[in-house]
Amino acid sequence: MENNTTYWSENLRLIAICLVIWFVVSFGFGLLLVEPLNEFRLGGYKLGFWFAQQGSIYTFVALIFWYSHKMNQLDKKYESDEDKS
């Protein structure tokens, strides 16, 4: 039972990290900090515009892969039953 609680608390911690990163990139960089970021360019586009249009999507896809990798590690650490089928 203790393992279950620890497993889920670590899982929720990973989810919280993902949500915070996604919020900072999409809302923070794409809306709140758009003007200061527009001083820089990435691939010919203003950086604030790039984050609002593409950066948050790329970040979300990267977070999916990172979360999947971390969950695989977590499953191995706690010997999840999913791999034993």
Task: Summarize this structure as a short list of keywords or feature phrases.
single chain; 85 residues; mainly alpha; 3 helices; 78% helix
Overall pLDDT level:
88
Total domain units: 1
Strand content: under 5%
Structural class: mainly alpha
How do the strands of the widest beta sheet line up side by side? 1-2
SSE succession: HHEEH
Relative helix content? over 70%
**Helix tally?**
3
Rg measurement, Å:
17 Å
- How can the largest sheet be summarized? 2 strands, antiparallel
User: What overall geometry do the principal axes of the alpha carbons give?
Assistant: elongated
Number of strands: 2
* Unreliable segments of 5+ consecutive residues: none
Terminal Cα span: 21 Å
What does it look like?
This protein has helices at 2-32, 34-37, 47-77; strands at 41-42, 45-46. With 85 residues, it is mainly α. The protein has one domain (2-79). Strands 1-2 form a two-stranded antiparallel ribbon. Strand 1 and strand 2 form a beta hairpin. Helix 1 runs antiparallel to helix 3. The radius of gyration is 17 Å and the shape is elongated. It starts with a helix and ends in an 8-residue tail after the last helix.
